[in-house]
Amino acid sequence: MLVIVCYDVNTETRQGRRRLRRVAKICEGIGQRVQKSVFECHVDLMQLDDLERRLLATIDPTLDCLRLYRLPETKGCEVREHGKFTATDFEGPLIL
Questions:
Q1: How far apart are the first and last CA of the chain?
Q2: What is the DSSP string of 11-63?
Q3: Region 28-40: what's the mean pLDDT?
Q4: pLDDT reading at 38 higher than 70
Q5: What pLDDT does 76 receive?
Q6: Which SS3 state, helix, strand or coil, does residue 71 take?
Q7: CA distance 87 to 81
Q8: Model's pTM, two decimal places?
Q9: Which of 32, 34, 56, 93 has a 20 to 30 A CA-CA distance from 70?
Q10: CB under 8 Å to 18, separation ≥6 — which residues?
């Protein structure tokens, strides 16, 4: 399934900047960055549970915001892309 991870981490303190780096590193390990604080992740249910658990253990819920959007793997799920960024096609060949 495709999961969109969005976060807003309060970076007013040193601890906040550290949390931001940790959240980004967790997301980079499982998905691709499509905007500064937005990742697309192709995961199964077990990976999603693990990702959510790790992110919740990292953020401060009194200061930060974390949103995960599960998109169904159906023909109705469409991503329209505009601008400079080019996404990686995980379903395509690994070597071009």
A1: 24
A2: -SSHHHHHHHHHHHHHHHTTSEEEETTEEEEE--HHHHHHHHHHHHHHS-TTT
A3: 93
A4: yes
A5: 62
A6: strand
A7: 9
A8: 0.79
A9: 93
A10: none
Q: Is 38 exposed, middle or buried (0-12, 13-18, 19+ CB in 10 A)?
A: middle
Residue found under tokens 């919740």: 56
What would the pLDDT profile of 43-63 be if each residue is shown by its tens digit? 999 999 999 999 999 999 999
pLDDT (0 to 100) of residue 72: 75
pLDDT band of residue 92 (cuts 50, 70, 90) is low
Instruction: List C-alpha distances in Å: 38 to 84, 93, 94, 95.
Output: 16, 24, 23, 26
Q: Give the tokens for residue 63.
A: 């200061």
Is the pLDDT at 16 greater than 80? The verdict is yes
